[in-house]
């Protein structure tokens, strides 16, 4: 996790394990652009499998999509707290989501391993950014806005959740968080185009 801050304000950037697992489950289920925000597919690619045999008796794909979207929404709303405990093999937290629970039971081990690999990659990426000073752009955005307004920033906190997504972009979630592709910072101008408007609003 990276923290940038000043008097009364703080910006954090982090990769969130439960969302990695949810992303894997979405893609392995072939649910495509589901949820809000409907982020792009994961990288490396997660190959979709048919789950008709698992979910047909509990509502099929429509039920699976609805249950997954509710879980995704909950994870984003409650970040960084993790209130849904993923406890195999029964996954009691999903007792009211039978289609999702069956898919979790089938793929949890692979999802967990995939997520751990992505978290390892993120740790290395953070270290590279620290060495290069790439994260400095966040403080620069705040300071530029302070100079423009002629005052100090208001008190605010802003969370950027980074995920390994195929599309280098970001999705703003009101009032104070954003989901972003881990690769977006490789293009400072593109990064600025997504983040600067939010920073300007918060400052």
Describe the structure.
This protein is an alpha/beta fold. It has two domains: 2-13 and 128-202, 2-Layer Sandwich (Zincin-like), CATH 3.30.2010; 19-114, no CATH class. It is built from six helices and five strands, in the order E-E-H-H-H-H-H-E-E-E-H. Strands 1-2-3-5-4 form a five-stranded mixed beta sheet, with helices on one face. A hairpin with a 3-residue loop joins strand 4 (170-173) and strand 5. Helix 1 crosses helix 4 (98-132). The longest helix is centred in the middle third of the chain and has 35 residues, at 98-132. It starts with a strand and ends with a helix. The relative contact order is 0.19.
Q: How is this structure best summarized?
A:
The protein is built from 6 helices and 5 strands; from the N terminus they run E-E-H-H-H-H-H-E-E-E-H. It has helices at residues 17-28, 52-55, 60-78, 98-132, 136-149, 188-202; strands at residues 2-6, 9-14, 156-163, 170-173, 177-181. Helix 1 runs antiparallel to helix 3, helix 1 packs across helix 4 and helix 5 (136-149) packs across helix 6 (188-202).
Q: How would you describe this structure in keywords?
A:
elongated; five-stranded mixed sheet; 14% strand; 203 residues; alpha/beta; Zincin-like
Supply the number of structural domains. Answer: 2
Q: Tell me the total number of β-strands.
A: 5
Beta-strand percentage?
5-15%
Low-confidence stretches: none
Helical stretch tally: 6
What is the string of SSEs from the N terminus onward? EEHHHHHEEEH
- Placed side by side, the strands forming the largest sheet appear as 1-2-3-5-4
């Amino acid at each position: 996790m990276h923290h940038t801050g000043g008097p009364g304000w703080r910006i954090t950037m982090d990769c969130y394990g439960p969302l990695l697992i949810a992303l894997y489950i979405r893609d392995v289920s072939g649910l495509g652009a589901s949820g809000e925000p409907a982020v792009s597919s994961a990288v490396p690619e997660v190959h979709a499998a048919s789950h008709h045999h698992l979910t047909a008796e509990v509502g099929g794909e429509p039920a699976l999509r609805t249950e997954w979207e509710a879980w995704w929404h909950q994870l984003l709303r409650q970040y960084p707290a993790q209130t849904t405990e993923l406890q195999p093999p029964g996954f009691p937290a999903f007792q009211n989501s039978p289609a999702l629970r069956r898919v979790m039971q089938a793929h949890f081990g692979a999802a967990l391993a995939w997520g751990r690999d992505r978290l390892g990659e993120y740790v290395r990426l953070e270290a590279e950014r620290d060495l290069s000073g790439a994260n400095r752009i966040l403080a620069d955005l705040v300071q530029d806005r302070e100079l423009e307004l002629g005052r100090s920033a208001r008190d605010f906190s802003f969370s950027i959740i980074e995920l390994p997504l195929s599309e280098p972009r970001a999705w703003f979630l009101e009032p104070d968080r954003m989901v972003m592709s881990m690769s977006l910072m490789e293009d400072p101008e593109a990064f600025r185009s997504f983040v600067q408007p939010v920073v300007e609003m918060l400052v």
